[in-house]
Please model this.
Amino acid sequence: MEELKLIVTPSPHIRDDDSTQSIMFNVLVALLPVFAAAVYFYRLDALRLVILSAGAAVATEVTFQRVRQKPLTIWDGSALVTGVLLGLIVPPSLPSWMMVLGSVFAIAIGKQVFGGLGYNPFNPALVGRAFLTASFALAMTVWHSPFDAVSSATPLALGAARSNIPDLFFGSVAGSIGETSALAILLGGIYLFYKGTLDYRIPLGIFAAVVAVSILTGQDPVFHLLSGSLLFGAIFMATDLVTSPVTNWGRWIFGAGIGFIIMLIRIWGSYPEGVTFAILLMNAATPLLNRWTRPRIYGQGVKANE
Amino acid sequence: MIGRTFPRGGGEIPHRKEATENKSIVVFGAPPEVVIPLKQHIGACCEPAVAVGDHVKMGQPIGEARQFVCTPVHASVSGEVIAVEERPLPDGGKSPAVVIKNDGNDQLYKEYKPRDYEEMSPEEIRRAVKEAGIVGMGGAGFPTHIKLDPPTVIDTVLINGAECEPYLTCDHRLMLERAPEMVEGLLAMIKASGAETGIICIEANKLDAVEVVRQAISGHDNLSVEVLQVRYPQGAEKQLIKAVLNREVPSGCLPCETCCIVQNVHTAIAVSEALKGKPSFERVVTVSGGAVLDPRNVLVRIGTPIEDLFNFCGGLIGEPAAIVAGGPMTGPPVAELGGPVIKCSSGFLALRENEVGFDQNRPCLRCSRCVEVCPMGLTPNLLGELSSKGYYRKAEQLGLLDCIECGLCSYTCPSKRSLVTWIKDGKAGLAKEKAS
Model:
């Protein structure tokens, strides 16, 4: 037998088909219905914001990695996902330069300064949104109804009594471009769950806490679930792999904590909406939750036979 | 899903057993030359009992066990000893080995004499097992006679027919073709270990074997068959015990602490052969993988060079990317085709590039897939990170030594990180640190 060139690597010699790239691709596919709804409701503004945000995010990642002379990893798709996510959670009238600035900040400060993918403690897209909200409070809170440019209050500002649940479900209300249609978001969520990329514990934890606090404080739970950034945050933001806990119990607590903080801010805070800050706060608690909720190791705490 | 399983972790992996599961075992005969390592088991190496120039007969002991954890090795052909020297093992290690030039006569050292285990005492059975040089043939290679004489009271002997590794089908074929021998070996082991019952555990992807084994045990009230869910690593000892008996092996302890012992299908058959005086010098090996022309299960003499085995199966086609000894999840890579088949070789796989996957070590996404699949309840992402950076003591606190090295964390990682490799290195590093 002639000389063989064998690859000698340790076991396992076979690997699952899923990769970082395929996971990110799944998220992008799941965002398609949301993107479609955004374009349907907000037309060119939606296209403009998502494309600018995505482009700026990828460009920032490339720049950072070139300057630091690190291998280029934009093909893993994570920067693109961050960019698209951020583009979908801003008001339709946000000026282009602000969109670009927010996206650059999200990748640069939210992700790359920590060492890139996998090392960032906070969800980069939400870091971008928090930055925009803090810097351009006015531009980030100018809302207008779909289909026209007349400014209008969001359902959360109006309150449950003046909102229509079917409108909230289908999305024809004022809000961030990708966050108004509950239907589109749920479609994406179901797809991600089917693909095994989405852990149901985090969204369910959020929903459970929101419903519980709503009922305890005499508010309409359905209104709270469907309004604002809640659904989008619960399905696409809180479930960010890097910044959420790895244990099952950690995920329940993480989700419940987010839901609880959202309701605190909505009911007693000075902002009408609190999803961004609730998720960022619980991101900070993730390492602690991981430590507290480690699974029981097989065979530990079991007595040997005498 | 039919069948019992273990409660935590685990996952579905490809089976890839189609190539060999429906083919009867074929006999390889004997190669012109065999290389028989003196260390084919866990424990001490044997002392050579023959010298260059000696004529040996088939089944003659050529390595003596002088230590407690050790077991003899036997000539697998008759012929002349042409060398006693260091030779490579299939897993990349080295061992002193006896090289025998086959004279083609297959002259027996001792004629086989059928013996009824019921007339033998437990000590006699154990002695027969020890003299036959039987080791765990599922891959671990622990001397069987020691396992049959545990320090604790044993109530159950489990036969591990899970065969949860992809590609491997030798246990499956043996259950189909030699179930009565397996049952006899099991009954002998029950007697030797003082147990009461025996359970044959088979994964649900081998229902034909379940049928055959059920027939083979009829008439024995203390034996039963347990069908297990197809889930990796169902055949790992600790997971098997949990699934079948709902007992948990305490951390750092041997399975006998849960009053049971687990033996492989092939080991049970070898025990039944030992009763009539046939030593462990041949075994059935699965030869498979996309780069093998004619994949099959082969009854082969211990010491047969791997290259001869592949040639018997039509040779290699195309360029194999990797050759593996055992299953692809836990088997070591084969670097040299000159190494021999040993007692615990369950298979040899020649895999094509499209069948194998490699480490890429992209950044950890903390996606938690490794945590979800770990059958031991560990956090492999953390253990791997700590081990790779040398924090062995910290990793030990998080259960480093509880890892059973099933490889499922590395398999499932979307960033293709070398999790189980780091953990293995961490165990070695910890041992070194403790020794100094």
